Amino acid sequence: MRYDLITMDVFIAVAEERNLTRAAGRLHLAVSAVSKRIGELEEQVGSPLLLRNARGVELTPAGQSVLHYARQLRLVLGNMDDELASYSAGVKGHIRIHAITSVLTQFLPSDLERFLESYPLINFDIEERVGSAVVRAVVEGRADLGIFAEHTQPSGLETRPYRQDQLMVVTPRDHAIAKQQNISFKAALSHEFIGPHLDSSLYTLFSQQEQELGMDMRVRVRVSSFECMSRLVAAGVGIAILPKAVIQQYLRPMKLHITELDEPWAHRNLVVGVRRMDLLSPTVRTLVEHLAQTG
After folding, report:
1. pTM, whole model, 2 decimals?
2. d(CA 107, CA 121)
3. Does 226 lie in the same domain as 84?
4. Nearest-CA neighbor of 167 among 22, 268, 275?
5. How confident is the model over 104-125, as pLDDT tens digits?
């Protein structure tokens, strides 16, 4: 079947307004013209799309399905318009990235630097978020791609391997753990912690390991900022488990020490997530392939 884009816009307006008259006003069309297009679409589909009532209209199951795909079509065409507008302005694309803190601190800046050497006219919007928020942003279309830890629930996203980071136990230099070459998670749980935010990928990871051990982490403070966690460790409030590359910058100024966390899961797999690879713009797909090759 061939569907008319104007008719799809009319149907979306009717579905959102739940009223033919309001939809007609929104589109600056006559009510009769709106009704005619809806009738033609129903005839083309072969099923009623709307149920008329005293207050306006409601969608039938077939109408709900048409609305879903009409919105998807509008989203794809909108993305095409945005990208083509960028080309006409001399810019080769615009990419929205949401990523967890450890990715932004450790890997992404240098990876984008290399990418921009080959594609210097691409623009980026980059936002720092906890793992679950990164996934939500991609699912809801607010980000073109997200980068997060593999153990974060991807909610149906397609993922590609990106990199690994290593988790370390962070303590003051004079702490008992600082005298050890490594420490197990079980042994570390005997100490009080500065814990990650409840929505973070680290919280999810630690919770899984606590359940396996049948033990609980004694958390005195929860914060989302790695710098704040480091300062609280330096103040003697508790110990923390953080990515190695993140904590390196704080070791000397805050007089901290890192000890190897002797667990196989301390080496985290990081992934790039998108809604569907086959629907990505060429610009975004090129970046995803570049990031997947860096690991």
Report:
1. 0.62
2. 21
3. no
4. 268
5. 988 999 999 999 988 888 899 9
Average of per-residue pLDDT across 200-225: 92
Residues in the chain: 295
Boundary of a domain, candidates 88, 123, 140: 88
Q: Kindly provide the residue ranges of all beta strands, DSSP E only, lying in 115-238, ordered along the sequence.
A: 122-128, 145-149, 158-172, 182-183, 192-196, 218-223
Confidence of residue 290 (pLDDT cuts 50, 70, 90): very high
Residue 205 sits in a domain whose CATH number is: 3.40.190.290
Residue 274 and residue 162 share a domain: yes
pLDDT of 90 reads: 45
Cα separation, 258 vs 267, in Å, equals: 15
- DSSP code at position 199: T
The reply to whether 127 and 267 lie within a common domain is yes
Do 160 and 225 lie in one domain? The reply is: yes
Are 78 and 176 members of one domain? no
Residues 144 and 214 in one domain: yes
144-169, pLDDT tens digit by residue?
999 998 888 888 899 999 998 899 99
Q: Which residue range is the domain that position 185 belongs to? A: 93-295
Which of 88, 119, 135 lies at the terminal end of a domain, its last residue? Answer: 88
State how far Cα 119 lies from the chain centre.
23
Q: What is the 3-state secondary structure (H, E, C) of 264-287?
A: HHHEEEEEEEECCHHHCCHHHHHH
The rounded distance, in Å, linking the Cα atoms of 267 and 282 is 32
| Burial (CB count within 10 angstroms: exposed 0-12, middle 13-18, buried 19+), residue 26 | middle
- Do 47 and 159 belong together in one domain? no
Those residues whose C-beta lies under 8 Å from the C-beta of residue 262, and which sit 6 or more positions away, are 182, 183, 184
Least trusted range by pLDDT, from 33-37, 79-83, 245-249, 286-290: 79-83
How far apart are alpha carbons 193 and 208 in whole angstroms?
16
Q: If pLDDT is split at 50, 70 and 90, which confidence band does 295 have?
A: low
